[in-house]
Amino acid sequence: MVQIPGGSFVMGGGEEADEQPAHRVFVSAFSIDRDEVTEAEYAQCVAKKKCAPHQFVETGNLPVTNVSFEEAQTFCRSLGKRLPTEAEWERAARGDDGRIFPWGNQPDCMQANFGNFEGEGRCPQNPGRPVAVGSFAGASPFGVRDLAGNVWEWVADRYQKDYYAISPAKDPSGPARGALRSVRSGACCSMFGLPRAQNRLAFPPEYRDIDLGFRCAASKN
Questions:
Q1: Could you give the CA distance from residue 163 to residue 182 in angstroms, rounded to a whole number?
Q2: Are 25 and 9 in contact, with CB atoms under 8 Å apart?
Q3: Which CATH number covers residue 97?
Q4: Whose CA is closest to 122, among 105, 106, 138, 100?
Q5: Secondary structure (DSSP) of 95-107
Q6: d(CA 79, CA 38)
Q7: 132, 186, 198, 206: most buried by Cβ count inside 10 Å?
Q8: Sign of CA dihedral 49, 50, 53, 54
Q9: Peptide bond before residue 21 is cis, with ω within 30 degrees of 0
Q10: Cβ contacts of residue 168 below 8 Å, gap of 6+?
């Protein structure tokens, strides 16, 4: 895991309505997985009967996908961890300088796995499918990898489109109610959009997809 120091940063302020308004948030120190949880790691949880049976592509370093919110949460809890909050996830991606992408402010097909859908899109040279974690160079200022592209990632918060307008200034954890759960990152397999660190998306907690995975976090004791 990567240790993220406590600090404030400007959250949101992106292109979409649910990324507004930009607002300063203080996030307490925490740690977050350097990489997305892999199929091999999830297979170990299944073998220990702590996670539900799962259909794997391979039990290697591909990010595990086709997992629901509850399955992701169960995996993290089995290791004494939890899912990161949206604020923690975005701080890990943007650092202290409010960058748009983990590597800086300009899109770069060499830095992350994004921008290819069936051979079309901004980055047709990229594989158009999830790849082994850490395959691309675009780590965040803290050294966290694949926070842009590869797979969308479940986070702990419930989703509310206008939550940023009422978000607390310290350690926000999302609204108390809501049918949808937030996901972050942007994924490999879309010709549209960019994997900006402000990106927000939401799905029902039972939703699964071939480009939806997760990573875990932990509070600092």
A1: 12
A2: yes
A3: 3.90.1580.10
A4: 106
A5: TTTT-SBTTBSS-
A6: 14
A7: 186
A8: negative
A9: yes
A10: none
